[in-house]
């Protein structure tokens, strides 16, 4: 692993460099503050920018706080002061509403389970912001993501953070080679604890600031209530594996494949075992539930693939596949299927939701990713067995 | 400091406890000469060096400071006066010697400010600045006029004291305001007087007060439209009032616009309001220092002024409020200012404010001519380098503040231009600041008929006492490439 100070590579030359004009996206959290500080210390000309993503930012942090309160903007500004870099606020609220929030709602309405952080990286931080930055004369966009970029082999490759628990390569795997070439992630060789300790050493007041959780634009953390406000009530049946109605719900968008809690079914399952959401059929609003074993998936089709760690697939390869943020990885055989990727898991995975990303790894290196479009199993498991 | 010595004295009779008239307030050395107990000549000798640094550091961090409408560097004289006061203790409301000393500074400052702006000393109500003065005028006058029966506002209280004052022959007292045809006995005592008329281009300090009254206090808000230059005509005001003259609580029209520099015909507008006996408030924060601003001659009921736009400190401002007006207080407490505004007065800031006011009044014409010439050069160079730049607001002339140049750069975003210029050491503004630092499209430009794109592509350059031709040249050297780059980012 290269040190953060030399990780930067001039996009035009591909060589390590200092003195780049770097735009540091600063959320007001500890990670982006330390990332900006490291980039500045490495000899880059860093400008801090806080992205205003909410059209009506709340003034103070709430329980499951997001990253766009006025207090966060102030924290970012104070970090920039301490680092000694210029600081601005960029208004990305309109783009964020259209590309992330509306997409999030539309995906749930389609029965999918989107990952808004991933979408924000793809459409906002490394698209709208990056494009504007480059046009304004910046060479790269720096963020506090826990991941690394390996530029030793020419084309930049995305690599997991040394901090397995905090690794964010999953939500960055949608970036194209062009986007990755302009990205700078100075934190990949450090654990979160190290980052916090460094923030304290640097006198950054955000050193002890709690991590952000959940979806940043849902301040109270209640995704289902948020979706109900956006999509209204859409009652439908909850059916068992055989199609018998065993309950009702007021919106199929409130469910995620693999979900167990909050089903509110009165009749217990015949086998007395817990039931899980197996599938969501958005047109009829049908939510199908069943035993845990029925969640097992062995085949996945991932659409719109992006390749950064290898050439686009021409034949089958063996890879490790991650199917949700902070999820485990599964050995699989992956091969091209038209424009899609067909992924055959060597052992079943449970609770695989459409709309999430399937990210292919070779060890710590991201090979590519695609959006999960459909799932299946090669053999139907016994319905009663666990 | 020589110019301070030459300032005309007058006013207070010299007494044993008083400082010599002409030199009062002039600096610590002179205050120390008065040998009041507790005085200290602490800053003697250091003041000039400190004051010089104020000027050198004008626009801290930026080599070229073109944002004087946001805040202008303190004048060395104002700085000296303020620092000199900071070494003293004493609440101006206290009865002992130290309190009296502070009180005296306040009252002398009040007299200076009154004299500069055509008001009586009792018509100067010190506030923490422009925003507070606007709040007091708008909310205070609305509350006092709402529900009050017609005759009250136009009765003896309103007309009497002014007519009896030393300027009885001035236009205010002689004007129709004191005895307007509709003022007395309009016969609408049962009807609420809750209309507020204000221009759509007001500063947020007025705009948001008016909005708030509309949303929370049942005010009937009417925004007065402006033409493409941002001007409101007396005829338009008259027409708006005529729809229900007895229902109007107050009219507020800013003297000069903070974004595009449009100068309203204040005397004409105030005269219209006076015909109906309606209080007329004007936010003169930007006008003061560049135009001859006078409460008496304008015919306005209330004027807002503030220190830090004219070379005084931030944190001191005033509402110039005609006698006979009885606004409901916004800040309740000790009633220090005419029982209308409470809070311990900031003696040091007010001393600095008064010196800046005096400087501004004395140098107004020359100052306006000098920065007007620089501004014309700025407009010329921008137009030469960026031919499609649109100058917002009136062409340079009597309807535009001498300090102001405001452009839209088609295809650019204002905040991108600002950032690129900032990186080159040039400070300017996109117009109005906002809570999170996010620039909203200017309500001023929208009111003038600009579309959102033009509003978001705008940039304000505002000149002040520290600018020279070098600053204009520096802008001229970079504005072309900056606009070109911002255009690439805007696509």
Radius of gyration of chain B: 23 Å
Summarize the biggest pleated sheet of chain B: 7 strands, mixed
- The count of helical stretches of chain A stands at 9
The radius of gyration of chain A is 22 Å
Features:
heterodimer; A: Rossmann fold; SH3 type barrels; 3 domains; five-stranded parallel sheet; 17 strands; 25% helix; globular; disordered N terminus; disordered C terminus; B: Aspartate Aminotransferase, domain 1
Description:
- The complex is a heterodimer of chains A (386) and B (491).
- Chain A has 386 residues and is an alpha/beta fold.
- Chain A has 3 domains: 4-208, HUPs (Rossmann fold, 3-Layer(aba) Sandwich), CATH 3.40.50.620; 233-290, Adenine nucleotide alpha hydrolases-like domains (SH3 type barrels, Roll), CATH 2.30.30.280; 294-376, Elongation Factor Tu (Ef-tu), domain 3 (Beta Barrel), CATH 2.40.30.
- Chain A is built from 9 helices and 17 strands.
- In chain A, strands 12-15-14-13-16-17 form a 6-stranded antiparallel beta barrel. In chain A, strands 3-2-1-4-7 form a 5-stranded parallel β-sheet, sandwiched between helices. In chain A, strands 9-8-11-10 form a 4-stranded mixed β-sheet, with no helix packed on it.
- Chain A is globular.
- Mean pLDDT of chain A is 87; it is low at 1-6, 59-66 and 382-386.
- With 491 residues, chain B is an alpha/beta fold.
- Among the domains of chain B are: 128-303, 3-Layer(aba) Sandwich (Aspartate Aminotransferase, domain 2), CATH 3.40.640.10; 364-490, Alpha-Beta Complex (Aspartate Aminotransferase, domain 1).
- Chain B contains 18 helices and 12 strands.
- Chain B has helices spanning 2-5, 28-33, 47-56, 76-86, 97-116, 130-145, 150-154, 156-164, 171-174, 204-216, 234-242, 266-275, 295-298, 347-385, 414-423, 443-447, 452-456, 469-490, and strands spanning 64-65, 124-127, 195-199, 220-224, 248-252, 280-283, 302-306, 317-321, 390-391, 404-408, 426-427, 458-462.
- A 7-stranded mixed β-sheet of chain B has the order 2-8-7-6-5-3-4, with helices on both faces. A 3-stranded antiparallel β-sheet of chain B has the order 9-10-12.
- In chain B, strand 3, helix 10 (204-216) and strand 4 (220-224) form a beta-alpha-beta unit.
- In chain B, helix 3 packs across helix 4 and helix 15 (414-423) packs across helix 18.
- The model of chain B is unreliable at 1-47 and 149-188 (pLDDT under 50).
- Chain A binds chain B through residues 47, 50, 52, 57, 70, 73, 77, 86, 88-91, 93, 131-132, 135-137, and chain B through 415-416, 419-420, 422-423, 435-439, 485-486, 488-491.
